[in-house]
Amino acid sequence: MTQPAYRLRNEIRHRKVGNDRVVVRQEANEILVLNELGARVLEAIEARSSMAELTESIVEEFEVERPKVEADLQRHLAELVASGVIEPDPAAGDADVSANH
Amino acid sequence: MMFGKKFLTDPSHLPAPESSEPWGDQSLSIPAPGGSYLFTGLDSAQVELALAHFGPNCEANPPTDQRARLPTTRLYRISADRFLSPYTLTEPYQADIRHTPGLVETLGLRMIGRMHLSTPFEGALWTSEHRDPLWFCRVVLQNYLRLMVAYQTFLVGGVALHSAAIVSEGRTHLFLGHSGDGKSTLSGLSLAEGKRVLSDDLNALMPSPEGFTVESVPLSGAYGGQYQPNNRAPLAQVYRLVKDRGHRVEPVSPAAIFAKCLANAPYLNSDRLRLPELIERLHRLLSQVPSGSLHFSRDPGVWEAIRQYQGNTP
Predict the structure, then answer these.
(1) Under a CB-based contact definition with an 8 Å cutoff, are residues A35 and A17 in contact?
(2) 8 Å CB contact of A18 and B253
(3) CA distances from residue B249 to B240, B252, B253, B295 in whole angstroms, order as listed
(4) pTM score, two decimals?
(5) Per residue in B56-107, pLDDT tens?
(6) Cα–Cα 20 to 30 A to B127, which of A24, A75, B66, B287?
(7) d(CA A97, CA A50)
């Protein structure tokens, strides 16, 4: 399995609710709701699956074109980093999401 | 920032019960969800102020045999010069709170509180106030009670939520919202339609054989009147509030109403040690009752919209 490029920040607590995922940023005392795709991204990171594996599963499950899925995942990753939910994983070295495509 | 730095002249030196002196030898029980809260170590002026503020259901110097197992807080003296002037605060008042496994501490305007989360609950409250009703009742006791209600409710399997709780046909409809979201406006509209308001501020959701029962708490809101013990009704439905131009109830996603509940669970939602249990408890609660998003205006007729939604909800 390819090493994931991101990890959840230590302070994050989250729970699946319906198809979505509710995320608590404890340091900022902030609560976020991730939609189904955001939830899948978070679950993949936590399970240490690569983005390539996640891309593959979404392409198969929803029968959408790979470039669109890749673009959506990149956007969600950027948003999750910007909102302080995930961070680059130093253990992943130079590996990044694009390297897993 | 160091715990208490906003409020104390020397936050590195906190008082301890063994080296503190109680205000007096009086006691007072204040009715609250799940029973009464006992305060000891008061002087007669403090008892008088609290009785006037919290109402006739409080009891001064309850018999000793009734005190056993009550959540108890002992009041201690502390010199006013230990506190910084309240007029030097540069931001809206928010007490400092510190959590450890068996202990919650709070430090705010003219008060230091320490709560041991044991059974029965034991607390200590240091204050410099004993004659001014505004400071002693509205600032010191009310802020301590808010925290105590939140933790005591949590300890017995419930959760306290910022909300308006309105009883219709014997069941409680709970409307979640922070200040300014319309809880008091909706409560006023509901009273005008003949409904009973438990509280438009903070309510305790207590576990019961039927699911959850909602009880008002002994704190002041704009509506709900004087606190009445056992003022409770089973939980029927949970809503988030949206100010709008008319009345309607729309479906709300499970995650959105869950997030709203979590955001309105004061103190516990910022307690890292208890957050995982709070999350699971709210999830259980919301799995037992329907939810919706109430859009409402200041016009009459909001309960007709709620009735219609309930009629269309399986």
Answers:
(1) no
(2) yes
(3) 10, 9, 13, 6
(4) 0.89
(5) 789 999 988 878 789 999 999 999 999 998 777 667 788 999 999 999 999 9
(6) B66
(7) 8
